[in-house]
Amino acid sequence: MASDQPGREASEVHPRVLVVGAEPFSYHTGTGITLSNLFRGWPADRLAQVHSAATPPANDVCGSFRFFPPRPAIVDRLVRRGRVPGRVAAGAGPAAPDAVRGGWRRLVHRELRAAADVRPLHVPRGLRSWAVRQQPDVIYSMLGSVRVMTLVRRLAEVTGAPVVPHFMDDWPSTLYAARDLGGLGRWRLTEAIRQVVRRAPFGLCIGDEMAREYEGRYGIRFTAFMNCVDQAAFDQYRESRPVGVDATGRQVVEFVYVGGLHLGRWESLARIGRALETAVPGSARLTVHAPERDLARYGDAFRPLSAVRLGHSVASTEVGGVLAGADVLVHVESFAPDTARYTRLSVSTKLPQYLAAGRPVLAHGPAELASMRHLQRAGAAVIVGAEESTLLAVRIAQLCADPALRQRLGDSGHAFAKLCHGQQQVAERFAAELARAARRS
């Protein structure tokens, strides 16, 4: 993405942007990866970031950072001390991973986190002065907490820059919905969002479904932007591969999952593992690649399943190779009503990568979720949108028995990704939106 387009000033193409949020630019988290992809090609002297996560930032896209702790040190110690570890045992029931553990300790921890988030915020003079020196035309933020929204508002006040919020999931509907702090948490959250939206000429969100709903909810225009994929991924991993073989030389269809196991996703994956044993015993297997902390917490639930093996935690640089080694990629969401309310408007960071890899997708989760609708629009997936093990086994058997079906779905997803998720065209549209915000200020 060129920044020196003929006849146009750099400020028109790439306004000066101050990125404010929890996660820094990085290749360790979904948020960090999405930020890096959206802003790749931005002139380094026109981009700066304030972040609160301790994750080391990557400086290949942005080179100017300021760390702002997520909460005061004494509060942070109290919150950490109140944590209650959890582990899912093999054969645990459906409610096990998300059930309340520790009783009053869990409640106290939740209340402490809420109190730390909504307490009055002091923004140091040094941080305010640094932000003013950046001379931002726009403040961009994925928000996510009262503390971050308050910081965004304070920095907008001292710099005079408009705010462009980017919602990646529907946390405004679920955060503090349990009336934390006697309802104070929810009230402070609603007020903080209102203050941010007042400073926003428009907003961004992760998908079309969210854009339509948020326009009605907040009264401003929203445009959809999600993770995008570098052209090299399309070129490198497009070639089809034969079905693999196991140690005995028997053909095995490789199902691969890459992602987290939290939010009840482990349960949907385990259901797929059991369906593989029923539908195609011995001729297909599911490899699960998840973060180490998720494998430690939920891994025991998969050990009795002969069709499932636990892979290693995949670094961002390894994802392409892992996807290329699959015959079928797997996407799952939880059917638990509370979790589905949280994920209903979200589209996973990995789905553009799945589609770009040119592999068919087996999707298992509530059919009404935005992620399932996105895969349906791409024509890339066999979607089992109900909690029905028999139907799941039938669909798995179809995928395993029909190479032409797998090829057709993979081709469709690849074409859709080139049209909608290519990094260069997405980043150019993204830059144009932020430039529009700067002009409207």
Automatic annotation (TrEMBL):
Recorded superkingdom? Bacteria
GO: which molecular function terms? transferase activity
Alphabetized, the UniProt keywords read: Transferase
Q: What is this protein called?
A: Glycosyl transferases group 1
Give the species.
Micromonospora narathiwatensis
